[in-house]
Amino acid sequence: MPPRLQAVFYRAPDGSEPVDDFVESLKDPAKQAAIDNQIDRLNLLTPSNPHLPFPHSSQVRGELRELRCHYGSELYRILYRRSRNLIVLLHMFRKDTGKIPEREIRLAEECWEDFKARMNAERRRRPRAAGHDAP
To answer: What's the mean pLDDT when you consider all of the chain?
Structure first.
């Protein structure tokens, strides 16, 4: 079996995990489960098959991608990027417009820059795995 990629939550400098915090804020266990199931799809990817097909995911800008999550008529997006064998879940928001707002993309890009800067530093703490089966 080929090695798999691992979805992880981006951890901000203050220790918060914005995507996990957003999912937890939804309160409805069924909504949370629907989003966790989409995140789990990312954990099935391999280095030779690194992207989910449309309509589950698509490219946003450069290497930034969106994971499409929905619950009924509510649409959610998780913006993420790949770092070697990790898929870093950077930012999540409820999508109420046709196009992803530029401010949401900028937030994800800022999280990515912070992630890379801290991961390239001498000492680092491993990101926490994402998905409902994660430790």
So the answer is: 91
